[in-house]
From TrEMBL:
Residues 1-41 are annotated as: Disordered. Keywords: Ribonucleoprotein, Ribosomal protein. This is Large ribosomal subunit protein bL35. It comes from Skermanella stibiiresistens SB22. It comes from the Bacteria. Gene3D superfamilies: 4.10.410.60. The keyword Zinc does not apply. GO terms for molecular function: structural constituent of ribosome.
Amino acid sequence: MPKLKTHSGSKKRFKVTASGRVKAQAAGKRHGMVKRTQKMKRNARGTMVLAAQDGVTIVKNFLRNA
């Protein structure tokens, strides 16, 4: 059997924590910051832990070796 490959784009976008949850950057901060509220910009700073089912999908489909 061939080895399972990890999706290269996902390696750069997601990190798996020690407990198996998935961390990712917040969406919606690339451009158009003028129309965003201060609260949205503040809350989208840094990284966030994805919802449980989203994390399962990421690990199952893209980060197979994580």
